[in-house]
């Protein structure tokens, strides 16, 4: 066979491949060749018509990157599902807050009355050795006394003078004041339930323990002061909103509503994890319910000024609808982009709803360790006492009760609220049982609440079982604490975690994708479990965002 002709471009590539690339320089191609084509061929192919034709007929194949485009399509579907899933969580949380709010008006007075009757009749029965009041009854009596004292103190606050004082300020000053009030409300909510819990525990702590507190009366005075100041703060918020409603050009109301969209900027571009998003969702539920109550107070004050003319109610409806619509729009946009940027599925809102339902179901157990209204306060930061105190103050000052017919109407209205509370509780309990069953969390109902500081013996036994370490080593250096897994769709398993620093435990847990395997003694693999369960997040915090 004769010698086959090899084009110069192939000769160049073959020669470059045979050279030692690491030793010397790769020879350059001939000057009359550019990427394997002669200059004459390039000049002949250069044509505007050929370029336009190539641009019009150029094709590409999306199936070559199927995984990428499938992921993008799923992101779109996730964003479309967010409004529905978010509103289902918001609706469920709204009725939970409503149940805790109605409890203050309906069942709490009856429970306080029963506790006082027991307190008065028990010494007559000569039952020696038994407690005068149960711990739950002590907490109810304390709540009742706090409400009575704060209500008597609220009579010294002039709502009309506060309204005219705020109305005399400029628009920009009122805008700054409203932002400061929102921030102060969050700070009060984050610390208020701690004050109330400290009072309840101080009053019901077993007496045989060593005294490690300042006394019940100082704690009670602190709680009264907190509830009164928080009620005043909410009153100023309602007054500022009322001034915005009654302004002629509605400029203040527009500025206040546009302030909600600033919340998107402060939240969307931060790193969020599932637990952080859970805290934000609870905060949004509390904020939405509080705004509804503030709108109710504004409507009551305006209707009183217009002698309860129903025509004026239609004048307020557009502004009320604008406030509600802006809240819903901001929440939907905020959660949609947070889940998009952090790759959080829409099913996570079902887990949040199941966690809230678990609180309700566990509070109905015989061995429950907290009241549900307090559980809602710890979970969402919604403390119903100051808000209920303000609503009672506004209603009693706006509605005049005169005559037997008025008293009958008040009694019928009270019975109607009790009926609403009972029906709402029954429906919520039924839906909560369904959510807990769907999330496979029934077995957690029979577990004891997680202990913050485990005993030395149980920690040593746990260490010796899982890590085969000697029992004589220090607990602080090698303790393994078992943690309940999150209610996700992954199979649940018993996990252990290695000791971490306090700074790690202050923040929330990383996602499941960030859980790495750790090698211990070179032989055994131990999976790191999440540091925090959704059920363990019972503290409302405004610092739920971790910025990396």
Automatic annotation (TrEMBL):
Coiled-coil ranges from the UniProt annotation: none
Membrane topology value: Multi-pass membrane protein
Gene Ontology CC annotations of this record: ciliary basal body; endoplasmic reticulum membrane
Compartment list: Membrane
Main location: membrane
Membrane-spanning segments: 141-157, 220-245, 382-399, 405-423
Region (Disordered): 446-476, 491-512
Keywords on record: Chondrogenesis, Membrane, Osteogenesis, Transmembrane, Transmembrane helix
KW Transmembrane helix (keyword) present: yes
GO biological process, one term: cartilage development
Compositional bias ranges of the Polar residues kind: 491-510
Family: Belongs to the TAPT1 family.
Name of this protein: Transmembrane anterior posterior transformation 1a
Species classification: Eukaryota, Metazoa, Chordata, Craniata, Vertebrata
């Amino acid at each position: 066979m004769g010698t086959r002709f090899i084009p110069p471009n192939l000769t160049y590539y073959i020669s470059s491949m045979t050279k030692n690339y690491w030793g010397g320089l790769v020879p350059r191609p001939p000057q009359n060749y550019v990427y394997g084509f002669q200059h004459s061929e390039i000049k002949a192919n250069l044509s505007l018509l050929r370029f336009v034709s190539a641009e019009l007929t150029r094709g590409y194949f999306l199936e070559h990157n199927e995984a990428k485009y499938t992921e993008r399509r799923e992101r779109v579907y996730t964003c479309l599902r967010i409004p529905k899933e978010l509103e289902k969580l918001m609706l469920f949380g709204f009725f939970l807050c409503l149940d805790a709010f109605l409890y203050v008006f309906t069942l709490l007075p009856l429970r306080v009355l029963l506790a006082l009757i027991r307190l008065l009749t028990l010494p007559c029965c000569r039952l020696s050795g038994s407690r005068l009041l149960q711990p739950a009854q002590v907490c109810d009596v304390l709540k009742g006394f706090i409400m009575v004292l704060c209500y008597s103190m609220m009579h010294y606050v002039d709502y009309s003078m506060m309204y005219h004082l705020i109305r005399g300020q400029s628009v920009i000053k009122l805008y700054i004041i409203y932002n400061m009030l929102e921030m102060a409300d969050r700070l009060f909510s984050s610390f208020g339930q701690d004050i109330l819990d400290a009072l309840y525990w101080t009053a019901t702590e077993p007496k045989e323990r060593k005294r490690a507190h300042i006394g019940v009366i100082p704690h009670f005075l602190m709680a009264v002061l907190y509830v009164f100041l928080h009620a005043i703060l909410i009153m100023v918020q309602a007054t500022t909103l009322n001034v915005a409603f009654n302004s002629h050009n509605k400029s203040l109301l527009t500025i206040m509503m546009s302030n909600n969209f600033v919340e998107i900027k402060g939240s969307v571009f931060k790193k969020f994890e599932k637990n952080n998003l859970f805290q934000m969702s609870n905060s949004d539920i509390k904020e939405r319910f509080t705004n509804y109550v503030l709108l109710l107070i504004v409507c009551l004050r305006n209707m009183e000024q217009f002698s309860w003319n129903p025509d004026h109610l239609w004048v307020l409806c557009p502004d009320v609808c604008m406030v509600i619509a802006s809240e819903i729009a901001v929440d939907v946009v905020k959660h949609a982009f947070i889940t998009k940027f952090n790759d959080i599925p829409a099913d996570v809102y079902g887990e949040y709803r199941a966690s809230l339902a678990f609180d309700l179901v566990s509070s109905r157990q015989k061995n429950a360790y907290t009241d549900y209204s307090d559980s809602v306060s710890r979970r969402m930061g919604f403390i119903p006492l100051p808000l209920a105190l303000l609503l009672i103050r506004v209603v009693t000052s706006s509605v005049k009760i005169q005559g037997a017919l008025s008293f009958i109407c008040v009694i019928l209205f009270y019975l109607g609220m009790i009926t609403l509370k009972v029906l709402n509780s029954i429906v919520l309990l039924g839906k909560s049982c369904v959510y807990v069953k769907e999330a496979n969390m029934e077995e957690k109902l029979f577990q004891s609440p997680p202990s913050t500081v485990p005993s030395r013996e149980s920690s040593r036994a746990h260490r010796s079982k899982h890590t085969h370490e000697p029992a004589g080593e220090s607990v602080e250096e090698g303790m393994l604490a078992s943690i309940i897994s999150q209610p996700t769709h992954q199979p649940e398993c018993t996990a252990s975690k290695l000791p971490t620093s306090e700074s790690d435990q202050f923040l929330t847990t990383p996602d499941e994708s960030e859980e790495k395997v750790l090698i211990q003694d070179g032989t055994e693999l131990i999976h790191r479990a999440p540091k925090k369960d959704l059920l363990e997040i019972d503290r409302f915090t405004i610092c739920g965002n971790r910025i990396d």
